[in-house]
Amino acid sequence: MTDSWLWKQGKSSALVAPLALFLLFFFVLPLGTMMRSAVSDPVASRALPTISSALKGWDRSSAPGPEAQTALAGDLRGITDDELFGDLVRRLNSAKSGFRTLMSKTRAALSADTALSDLTSVDKRWSDPSFWVAIQEAASSPTTDRNLLAAVDLMRDANGSITNVPPGSSANRDTLIRTLITAATVTICCALLGMPFAMVAASVTGWRRQLLLAAVLLPLWTSLLVRTAAWFILLQDNGLINSTLQFIGLTSGPIPLIFNRVGVVIAMTHVLLPFMVLPIFSVLLGIPKNLMPAAASLGANPVRAFYLVLLPLSLRGVVSGSLLVFMSALGYYITPALIGGAKDQMISSVIAYYATGAANWGMAGALGLVLLVATILLYVIYLRLSIEEARA
What we know:
Blueprint: H1 2-39, H2 43-47, H3 51-54, H4 66-78, H5 82-95, H6 99-112, H7 129-139, H8 146-151, E1 154-156, E2 162-164, H9 172-203, H10 206-217, H11 224-234, H12 240-247, H13 261-285, H14 291-297, H15 302-330, H16 334-339, H17 347-357, H18 361-391
């Protein structure tokens, strides 16, 4: 009996193992790496091993004494790896502008004079406490919340308190808000278009239903880049949409539909519409067909019957579709990059810049972690609503 049970459990585990391994290597591990990079800051502590202890007790209001300068000079002389030095310079320069030239100048002076320890004689900027504050914060711990705070335009001041970054120095918060607003707008548009379409598809049978479903599923068989490029052509001033509107006399000139928020919403709605239609359609199929005629026989007009009978019963599909569309829209990159303007870029563009342009994986991971937390919160809310609905 025991051997038979173990054999069945072994077969079940063998069937699940490929999926478990796939999720582990292509989801869990990359996700963990992203989360670790968001709070990991080992470069300065590894490159400057003695400066942190030399700055203990420093008042941070004036330049530190000769002991700290001697310790920093010794740490800089000990850096023989140019790649490590470059990483250190990028880390410090991201916290305080001017470190790129300052560190290069100081390293060259220390290499030329092995007895040099007075850094203020190399560059007067070493008498500025803000540069030493940046070094102390970077070298004090291999972990940091700097990237997570910067992802929402926050920072720690000289006293360690959390405060807003100076105006105009960062736009991450505005970009996050823009991303949420764009994703919500696309979700609403998909719901307004998807609900009637799903109702029509559920009300017909045979080849008509197959044709309607094919119209929804067909875009999924086409590359996202191809669909976005098609909308890029259609939305131009001399594209098919503007040409048609002018031909039938609805407009006297081209309507700006590209490089703005309108074009982004139109293209994203088309791409994400299937994720709204299919959940609603599956729920509508389970609703008895005689409920709407019964509501009409009791005196309810079609609009009243829809709001009181059909919509509450199909709300589960609407919520599921909205969740799918909203979470997918949060991470869109190609469509806003091609169709939108400079003020329509979403947070994915900022993440791509930090990852590939600035080589700042910490900030890229922090912004990705913010999106992950927002997605998890939405999913938790959905699960809670689903559980309460099931209990009711």
